[in-house]
């Protein structure tokens, strides 16, 4: 399987020596799954206007997070909005992570705005509302999963065709599916706890002292990124 990573941002340069850039984070996530058939990856810097020459160059796509908002009035953001629409019309398999999750919702008629609850940072738990056949083994025993989060915006209104799969009081639309080809995930299965901690410190002033302390403390919790990672592979193969 050939997966195209639609890269919407870079990790800050001074953090890359320790944590890598987004491509390395996704490679590390999927390598940890010990898959019998390891997918190949192609990376497209969509924030620099780089896209696949043909949509079918890859079997499916994953979009990364981004420090900017899907509501920013920037040419590359508008171009990305259009490409997500094109993927949808073609019913091409695509998984949106954080910014990508939000762009999927906005591009198909939903709404994205600053969360009324403030920043979502650190490890946060989502309730599994609707198990799906492509989810990794063990889903029958799971009522919730925990992931690293890092978002100020969130999906406040889903497109009509979207089905909520997981959420929380903090982020009700934490995971959704559209038809059999689009999957949106607000959390970051590719983020390590160390990177989450460093990123919170970078954004400390914006996050606020109380939420920062809560976020840092939450990193002591166990996370389910491997379950999510395997489920992502299953979704792309389904």
TrEMBL record:
Coiled-coil regions in this chain? none
Tell me the domain of life. Answer: Bacteria
All copies of the Glutamine amidotransferase domain together span 84-196
Stored InterPro entries: ChyE-like, Class_I_gatase-like, GATASE
Xref: PANTHER family: GLUTAMINE AMIDOTRANSFERASE YLR126C-RELATED
What is the protein name for this chain?
A: GMP synthase
